Amino acid sequence: MRINNNIMAMNTHRQLGANQTNGAKSLEKLSSGLRINRAGDDAAGLAISEKMRGQIRGLTQASRNAQDGISLIQTAEGALNESHSILQRMRELAVQSATDTNTAEDRAEIQREVDQLTSELTRIADNTDFNTQKLLSGDFSAKFHIGANEGQNMDVAIADMRAEALGVASAEGFALEMTVQVTGHADTEHGDLAIAGATSSTVTADYDVVKLDSTTTVGSLEANYALTNSSGEYVAYSNDGKSYTMLTASQATLGTGTLVTAGAVGAGDFNAIDFGDPVVSGSVTISVTADGDDKITGFSATATANIQFEEGGELASGVYTVVGTGHHLVGGGDSHGLVDSKGNVVGLSTDGLTFRSFSDATQNLFVIKEDSGPGTNALQVGSSISVTGDGGIDVSSQSAANSAITVIDEAIVKVSTARSEMGAVQNRLEHTINNLGTSAENLAAAESRIRDVDMAAEMMEFTKTNILSQAATAMLAQANMAPQSVLQLLG
């Protein structure tokens, strides 16, 4: 018999500790409702369930994304409902104007309403937006992320629903904008084109490029173009619309107007300015940069050349850019291409003057008239064209109104097609939401089987460990009493 080491008590104490530990774990699981509260509970199960949790939360967010997509589609489709109403009214007016019981004055009033309705069509398309994104101006192309994982997107694009794109407004004006670089004698101390006030900062001033009615001779000077300041005074002349030479006092006047020779920093040394592209008419904004000593350090300019256009075909309003043979669709005899704001080629040209339709080589889009010799006004690569259209479809005569009926019918079909596509997308998104909900539910059930505790089974386990703990406590008391039997040996 030994009293220093009570093996029975030690064994019972160990079992009691294990029971208490198991009981504590059971209490933790029962109180949290989770089978896995820490990685030690089930390392593999934790990793699997966390991955499933990511999927579940991703599916839930994707469902919200789809709901937002439906809201966007409903916003666009709701606006087109009014566009449909406008087109139906325009068709009604076209039918009304197509009968000769109307006088010219009657048709003029009908045309006024058509013009207003056309403007409203464009206004609706320009102003309909969702979360600051324009929906109907032709620029909306997006991806809706409707899945939990990378790349699970659907593409959504909405066509241009403005009046010009629908074909019920014709292009009425063209404007050519060219960004040109002014070259000259940098770091010169004098410049006839210097702008008043150009000291230590960049100052800009506007000049007009005018084409002279005939070649003007002033002494030995001959010129086809002139540069005038804001006061209408001539300051420079050019023969090709590209290189301009400053006037001097000895050249007196050029055509009509007052000669201006001296700029803010003096006159004499700087007498030429060269644009990268010909600017033969319109306005030029020139910037002069000078240092604190009135020394000119740089010139730059942008030009808006109102070159005459001869409309030869339909071109929707918008901004177009001229590209060269570096574009993969330009070549094979063509030196110029015309691309829209989305980068689609809409026109081709062999000389930069006559642009024909990309889809119909027999149809010219427009022709730029030449002022003084072949190629003078040819569009340069990088130039941009802005096309505007304000008027409505023509219903001012019987024949025009008769033709307008078919054009408006085609516009109605375009709007109907767009609305049908939006409706199909909305239905698709609703099915997507249902599928996402089902997937999230099934994944949640799978994750629950791994992560959540079975309350009934765990209660059984807790009851067992509780009973064992109480039994171990009682046995520990008995084991502690066992060494007292040694006292009987002492008599």
What does this structure look like?
With 491 residues, the protein is an alpha+beta fold. 39% of the residues lie in helices and 22% in strands. The strands form 3 sheets. It has a 15-stranded antiparallel beta sheet, with no helix packed on it. It has a two-stranded antiparallel sheet with strand order 1-2. Strands 3-4 form a two-stranded antiparallel sheet. The model is unreliable at 178-192, 255-270 and 371-376 (pLDDT under 50).
Throw out a few tags for this protein:
491 residues; 3 domains; 15-stranded antiparallel β-sheet
Distance between the termini: 16 Å
Under the CATH scheme, the architecture of the largest domain is: Up-down Bundle
The order of strands across the largest sheet is: 10-9-8-7-6-11-12-5-19-14-15-16-17-18-13
Query: Main β-sheet: number of strands, strand sense, barrel status?
Result: 15 strands, antiparallel
- What structural category arises from helix and sheet content? alpha+beta
Total beta strands: 19
Structure at a glance:
With 491 residues, the chain is of the alpha+beta class.
Ordered list of secondary-structure elements with their pairings:
Layout: H1 7-32, H2 43-97, H3 104-127, E1 129-130, E2 133-134, E3 141-145, E4 153-157, H4 163-166, E5 173-180, E6 202-218, E7 221-228, E8 234-238, E9 243-246, E10 272-274, E11 282-290, E12 296-305, E13 309-311, E14 318-323, E15 336-339, E16 345-349, E17 354-357, E18 364-368, E19 384-388, H5 398-451, H6 455-481
Antiparallel strand pairs: 1-2, 3-4, 5-12, 5-19, 6-7, 6-11, 7-8, 8-9, 9-10, 11-12, 13-18, 14-15, 14-19, 15-16, 16-17, 17-18
